[in-house]
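Q: Could you fold this chain for me?
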Amino acid sequence: MIYSYCGNSGIQLPKLSLGLWHNFGSVDDFSVATQMVVRAFDKGICHFDLANNYGPEPGSAESNFGRILKNDLASHRDEMFISSKAGHDMWPGVYGDGSSRKNIIASCDQSLKRMGLDYVDVFYSHRYDGVTPVEETMEALIQLVRQGKALYVGISKYPPHLQQKCYDILREAHVPCLLSQYRCSMIDPTAQRENFQIAADNGSGIICFSPLAQGLLTGKYDNGIPEGSRAYRSTGFLQTSQVTPERVEAVKQLAVIAKERGQSMAQMALAWVLNDKRVTSLIIGTSSVVQLDDNLKTLENLDFSAEELKRIDAIVNDPTIWF
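A: Sure. Below is the predicted structure, expressed as structure tokens.
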């Protein structure tokens, strides 16, 4: 594993972190989930990314992760960096959603109980809800650190016009923002263009999710929408309407370059995001140990020639294929 320092902190994160957004909930095979977490840890992935609403059912990914920790990794807690988040719809009533102090504090308490932990290493505000003043949300994160429930804090998906304000509030309280989490991929460059430099200028590490664009950048959809895939499910985050002919054609062109590099399409897509030196780590999602091992092979070839980058840019610098 390759590790990088996180912003202006002394924390190192693996270049690839394991996310438990999909495939670790109550509807999934617990034995497979266990195999993936243990394999990831054995391979040097010490950072595990969760949120209170991950499942389904909401909360079940944290509960399952807690079971895995207790059963298989109990003696390794201090070798692990565990994150969780709050801000999206979680429980009934007006307090189970959003970024209020009440939601943030209650969510962290619930997450700790589900995972069987005394503290998380970083707790994020999962989103700006459009209503709660950022001062209130940031003060809630600061309170979690003061209470010893979180060692560090982070923000996720905050728009650039509020990003700086978050950093300023946290810095003034001497609880600097350790991590800024954004969606980024070859066909989703918005955060790279709008948010990354603000984070870097403020000493925050950057961690990216959905680097494979929910599977589009694996080549899975080159010949249609496979049964059981994320786009096939009506409740999935990748909708059928997003699998456009233009995006599929772009992926096919990119796959030619990947093959020349001796990589799969997915491996090159991960390497491309990591090629931005501002990025500390990528959150990968896997459905099997085989897929996990395949993603780890990305680290064998992270360098791009100027010619390769030029050819890739010619394909991906097309707003018609961006999310």
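A (continued): The beta strands are 3-5, 12-14, 16-19, 47-49, 81-86, 120-125, 150-156, 177-183, 205-209, 279-284.
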